[in-house]
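Exam revision sheet. Question 4 asks you to relate a sequence to its structure. Input first:
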Amino acid sequence: MTIGKQIKHFRTERGFSQPELAELAGIEQSYLSKLENDKSIPSNEIFR
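Answer key, structure tokens:
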């Protein structure tokens, strides 16, 4: 399972929308979308 799929699984399992999780993580919703679709690789800061 890719990192993006893991993020999406975590998000949907807990009932968060992309905007909700993005706000909690302190990132833009568009960046979260790119992460979930494996179009971007998360930085070290995001992992923390």
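Marking note for examiners. The radius of gyration is 10 Å.
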